[in-house]
Design goal:
mainly alpha, 3-stranded antiparallel sheet, flat
Length: about 625
Amino acid sequence: MMMDGEEEGNRGGGEEIESYESNPRAETEIAQAILNLIESVAHLGGYPRTHKKYCFGLVRRMKLLLPLLEEIRDYNEQISEKGISCLSNLKETFLLAEKLLKVCSEGSKIDLAVESEAFMVKFRTIDEKLCQALEGVPFDQLGISDETKEQLKRAKGKTDTLDVELEMDMMAVLSKKDGQNADSAIIERLAKKLDLHTVEDLNNETIAIRNLVKERGGFNAENILQITDLLKKFKQIIGMEVTDVLNNPVMPETLDICTSLVIPHEFLCPIMLEVMTDPVIIASGQTYEKESIEKWFNSNHWTCPKTGQTLAHLSVTPNYALKNLILQWCEENKFHLPKKADCASSESSTDHSKGICSLVKDLSCSHLEMLRKAVKKIRMLSKENAENRILIASKGGIQPLIQILFYPDSEIQEHSVTALLNLSLEVTNKRLIVKRGGVPAIIEVLQHGRRQARENSAAALFSLSMLYENKIIVGLSNGIPPLVDLLQSGTQRGKKDAVSALFNLSLNHSNKGRAIDAGIVTTLVQLLKDKNLGIVDEALSFLLLLVSHPEGRSEIGQISCIESLVEFIKEGNPKNKEYATSVLLELGSSNSSFILAALQFGVYEHLLEISTSGTHRAQKKANSLLQLINKTEQI
């Protein structure tokens, strides 16, 4: 739900600005209109977790103006045209603020995340307009109290950059690299951050996205596709039916036929939103359609979809009382229940399960061509959907896939490690792969496999290391040195897989030391020199992670690295500058000689520029670094 820069309309004091000039008490009307706007935004809520801080910060700054506006409203004399113009500008700014806050409160949460930078620009723009409007208010003429003036100083806010982890997760999920599926652990983390992890949340988000599409009138088609794809992923995670978000109604067609009927809410399955034909009760006491809740349980969920409560068991009990009520109501209202899946569909599902079971058995055969065909088919099936990944694991497919990683055939190795990568997208499978001894076998392929197999091995280690306990196991299994080798000599895709895996692994302190010993710092500095690789942000953020380690700090403090950091402080994009400044600050805080080296490369004037025009975090880091420089020069 994107905003334009035009005023949505006037509220409270509905006249155009020109009409205020002929009104002897125009300031009173404008002040009251702004007070009405503040009252309006005070009642808004439901902001997504990702933007809650910024929304509440903006509302707080608007409320800080209440004393000023009340004093203006009650002022008994007419103020100058300049004063009226300032108040009008303030009202226009508040209208924009109200519109932005409504978008954050009622709009698509996924859109807010996808367009995060654009929305942050809007927050910054409103902050700037607010400051400009306040600077023109004739305080002396209005007799504004010193207390109110002091309070207004706090109304000037600054907007920080967004959550870096959120940005990285969004990039991982929205990228379509080689058609790979996004890691389910990342999707679940995103869903929680965006507060889109229940059936009700996702149904509300579906409505918000449809409203968004109507408002945009077909513009930004690529952006809409990203939003709807991510919504589908969230629905898959909790076992909801995935339908055409833009064309299918939120309520099923069987309910649309009888629009005059008021269908009792308790007759609808909370997951499918259809009238239930086979209602069952689960351990939380909630009732669901049997087929829907079984899909949920088969997706490795141990919680109630509606309440989020962890379940003591996964048994279900038929709700005969509710079923009889539904049948009676349908008969009285001539309502036709949705047809159950026919036997052919059930048989097809059974055949699919048997087919996977047969393929898993073929993974242990000694015939080379049969083995190749089986592992290739398993690879393709594991890429298709979560149901296949869970089914392959439940049929015992993980153990033979690990065993054939040592098979002296490069094609089988590649198919097998890629299948394990696909299977590892499910959290339960991550644990099973590690438990069955998969890490050493994957590292073996990383060291000695052919190019594609090595790259997919790195991606598999990244996926497995999403779980903290697996980070430790990969580090202890000597998986970090071959990842550094791939980062040094791999293809562009191989380098990206390697740096992602190494960064994730280095969140563990011991692995941080292992990466430094394996030569990661020198490799990262070399990567900074090749901007065409597209991993400068990753390399700088990695250096920021490593600079907290004593050995890392010593290596990053080398002259060649400091020169590269200063270069990005001079000419990098805003995020580059923020990371590079942060690394240099960490270095300078431990040893003033690093600051002196940076000064030789002309860092000072560029830090001054960042201190006033960089991201909020970069400004803070630059100011802290400038203070350190001043102290160093005094010494």
